[in-house]
Amino acid sequence: MEKHVVWIALLGLGVSGCAMVDRLREPAPAPVAAVVEPVALPGLGAGQAAAALDATTAAQKAAAVAAAPAAADVALGAMVVALGSPAEQGFWLKSAKIVTPGNGRVVTATGASVAVDLQPGSGGALLSLAAFRALGLGLTDLPEVQVFAN
Predict the structure, then answer these.
(1) Residue 128 belongs to a domain with what CATH number?
(2) Of 44, 121, 125, 128, which sits most exposed with the smallest number of CB within 10 A?
């Protein structure tokens, strides 16, 4: 009985092997080049330039950059800031480290400084688009800045 099982198994393998040999003899089909046409994704466009989103005037920018540090400024410490919502105009900084709203100043590692409205926030610190541009920061940067309250 065992011999019959072995012979049946070998016969099955032999027959399936013949089919594979026949496939090897057939020429392979020629590859077909797929034509891919570009598809425009909905809702994606060229975007807008930062200057188009920043509605602060040249006078507002000059006043914010010209604000001199005062002797009574209180250091709130270093914060890593990200770009805040471009829809919220003006010069501001929102952070969980700020408990009460007030006036302040942000200073970068290069010494660039800008006057800002300090606002309580939640999570990481966010700096306005106008302040980012006035400080000469890249919009995708996450710079560490020193924050002072007036």
Answers:
(1) 2.40.40.10
(2) 44
Return mean pLDDT, the chain: 81
**Domain range holding 131?**
56-149
Rounded Cα–Cα distance for residues 10 and 12 (Å): 5
pTM over 0.85: no
Is residue 49 within 8 A of residue 86, CB to CB? The reply is no
Name the E strands within 44-141: 74-83, 92-95, 102-107, 113-120, 125-127
Percent of the chain at pLDDT > 70 equals 69
Kindly state whether residue 118 falls inside one of the protein's structural domains: yes
Measured CA to CA, the distance from residue 14 to residue 10 in angstroms comes to 6
